[in-house]
Specification:
- By secondary structure, the protein is an all-alpha fold.
- The chain has a domain of 28 residues.
- It is 21% helix and 0% strand.
- It has one helix and no strands.
- The protein is flat and about 110 Å long.
Length: 137
């Protein structure tokens, strides 16, 4: 240890004391912030005090109609249907959406990626429908 230097325990105590004081100050600042704010004061003037009316009034429409003053249109009033048109072919450019293609059908049962397909089992011959007889008879 160089001359004039205090033992390491003194420095450790000073650092712990500084950390404790810093933590206490941090907590005090948080408590002050939390107690000072957080609530909005009530408005001094309500909307009715400012000259704005309360809730809007709902009025129902009148069902009384004068049947004598009926307007009629003269001429052809039937609508003619319009035939749909097909959009011009854009050649793949623009906003044309390509038609979805059907997925390819699987080819047999393969043995995995890059493996050839297993051969189909041979079809039974002769009269079927029962259990196989033991060999030799």
């Amino acid at each position: 240890m160089p001359p004039g230097r205090e033992p390491d325990g003194v420095y450790r105590r000073r650092r712990m004391l500084a950390a404790a004081v810093g933590g206490i100050l941090f907590l005090v600042v948080i408590v002050l912030i939390a107690s000072a704010g957080g609530s909005d004061p009530q408005p001094k003037d309500s909307p009715s005090d400012l000259g704005v009316g309360g809730a809007p009034s709902v009025t129902t429409p009148s069902t009384d109609r004068d049947k004598k003053t009926k307007t009629t249109t003269t001429g052809d009033t039937t609508a003619t249907p319009v035939a749909p048109t097909t959009p011009p072919a854009t050649g793949g450019a623009g906003g044309a959406t390509p038609a979805p293609s059907t997925p390819a059908q699987p080819e047999g049962t393969g043995g995995g990626a890059g493996q050839p397909a297993q051969p189909a089992p041979p079809q039974p011959t002769g009269e079927g429908g029962g259990a196989a007889a033991p060999p030799g008879n």
